[in-house]
Design goal:
mainly alpha; 8 helices; elongated; 0% strand; homotetramer
Amino acid sequence: MRITRLEGLCDGVFAVALTLLVLDLPAPKGSQALARDLLQQWPSYAAYVVSFATVAIVWMNHHALMDRVARADRGLLELNLLLLLFVALVPWPTSLAAQYLRDPRQAGVAAATYGMTMAALSGSFSGIWLYLQRRENLAHPSARPRLGGALRRALTGVVAYLFGVALAFAWAPAAFAVYALVAMYFAISGRRAASSTSIRDHNQISDEPV
Amino acid sequence: MRITRLEGLCDGVFAVALTLLVLDLPAPKGSQALARDLLQQWPSYAAYVVSFATVAIVWMNHHALMDRVARADRGLLELNLLLLLFVALVPWPTSLAAQYLRDPRQAGVAAATYGMTMAALSGSFSGIWLYLQRRENLAHPSARPRLGGALRRALTGVVAYLFGVALAFAWAPAAFAVYALVAMYFAISGRRAASSTSIRDHNQISDEPV
Amino acid sequence: MRITRLEGLCDGVFAVALTLLVLDLPAPKGSQALARDLLQQWPSYAAYVVSFATVAIVWMNHHALMDRVARADRGLLELNLLLLLFVALVPWPTSLAAQYLRDPRQAGVAAATYGMTMAALSGSFSGIWLYLQRRENLAHPSARPRLGGALRRALTGVVAYLFGVALAFAWAPAAFAVYALVAMYFAISGRRAASSTSIRDHNQISDEPV
Amino acid sequence: MRITRLEGLCDGVFAVALTLLVLDLPAPKGSQALARDLLQQWPSYAAYVVSFATVAIVWMNHHALMDRVARADRGLLELNLLLLLFVALVPWPTSLAAQYLRDPRQAGVAAATYGMTMAALSGSFSGIWLYLQRRENLAHPSARPRLGGALRRALTGVVAYLFGVALAFAWAPAAFAVYALVAMYFAISGRRAASSTSIRDHNQISDEPV
């Protein structure tokens, strides 16, 4: 298995998942007051932005991960496909959240479904880091000391999402606030990890270009 | 025809087919008991997971196949496009299976449709191996002794899926059990085949990294 | 503009267009006689196969085209995007054809719409060959003598599709027979053209591997 | 971060967004006068063509941009993902415009929504050029003198789209005329910028091939 073709499939699934989110934005039919109807569906826009940002951040972190991989074996491949299963799933809880965010009795279940999907996504991410830690020779030598930190960050995400799921049944908006905070946490911690230069070739991220 | 561009199209179709499966997951509208309504549609989740896993396994085995190809001619190209026709079709029988799995009178037809699609997919896979066996100079020299085994595994899949189709009319759940077993068979036999290293470049799968 | 990135976008649009065709395959809801209902929608399956085959053949011929291009300028880029506009459109007339093939009064309009889309697709293909013929230094030196033949084949397609459109208003099934014949003509003439080896690298199509 | 993988994701999102536009083309159900019904939905065709052309032009200009980038840092990556958020959004205002273009009371809101999406898209494009201007060492040395002109063109787009939004509430068709003019402006100014050869490799656009 060449790593580039694995990346090709991953990027394809990420790109389609990002773009399919737009299908959950409703275009009201036969509206007599379009401005009002468009404003009323603000939860759909919020859900679009949060889900797009989350998938985009997962993509950035997946990139950082692949830059640390020197070789892939079948197990790593299967864990990557498990991750893609949850990435491709994101439009579904997004659609639920957009529809039920303003119905107080159902919002909790929608928020919990969203959080469980994201916890599973973070969980499969953690699984990849754990696998790399156990089979250290799959990782680039220079990346090995940092595997522990990456695993810890991914597990933090799982715990935070599960905390959000628990909150969801008490008060749904608080759960979504937690999900947004987790996304910001991953964006920021990913930024820090990226500032340590990657290995694989010369077109790298460099936060401090000379 | 450069092989890399053929792989690009294939990976694109696989990525879109994997991600379109999510469109068959229903988000109940105006539900008054969302938790119950979500749980009731469990066949949709099962169908999503089985179809995602099946397409993902086909993708992994397609990869292993392409790693064994040294050159492509027009016939090989056309057989690949026939394979893609059935890969792109998978969301359709998946949607049928999800909808009719719990209706005893229609489940047989849905299960048979699913199995026939998968048999055709395995059949076109067999066709590619058979073609490579007949035009051995398209395959990498080191891969030639193993073409017979690969063809036999693919044909086993066709026979097993057709057996599932026959079962479907007797008892639909048994047919789906057969389909799940076939997917597991391909995942495991693909793992074994992958442990024999591939040829094309240095970023290979290696089940026993040194 | 690097040619590889143009090919990346083209392959993406082709892959998505091929896979979106499945969205036009109806999964009957709440059917009481699923086998009968599935058989009754045979025009949808025929439309899926014909459209998939047509787009796949266009992709193969587009490949052969790109193998003959040495350099791209902005005009060639814009003509390629025009071609993609019609490739991305294919699922729409396919859906019309599937729905109205059995309604004698509307089948003519549906068949004509299908044929006009395909004529426009062939027309933009012809435009690319014409452009290459006029700016011969964009083409690989060894490909230049063959540009005339390629242009003639593409224009034959335009004429044949327009003939089909004219037939559509007399008898719709005859128009679809013409469209199927044109697809076969392109598949066969593309096969012949492919037997003259391509230039760009070593992983080529070769119809007569030694 | 390797630039090629960023381009892969971008091309994927562009390809899917271009192809999803077809889902907004309605195929009338059970029509008794298909020709008339198809002609009546001309705003949908106009919206398809304008949106396809706009996204295609954005893709061409994004290409020209990436050819000027020597290195990417995390900030550039995030600005690119922001751009993709608006690219992926385009099918939604397109669908609104197609539906409400002929309803005089709602057309203004639909046209304004379209214009605001495009202004945001141009705005995030401007953001990338501004970022490159501030961190000049990310750009190819030969591209640095031209960053100012590129930024000015992108900002012109933002202003023109906002002018269209203002017009929309007075007379919607005028707003759409402005949007079409902006697309033509970008196509033409992009053509000029492209005639200055790009840097990154030998398969370049050259408007004046020797």
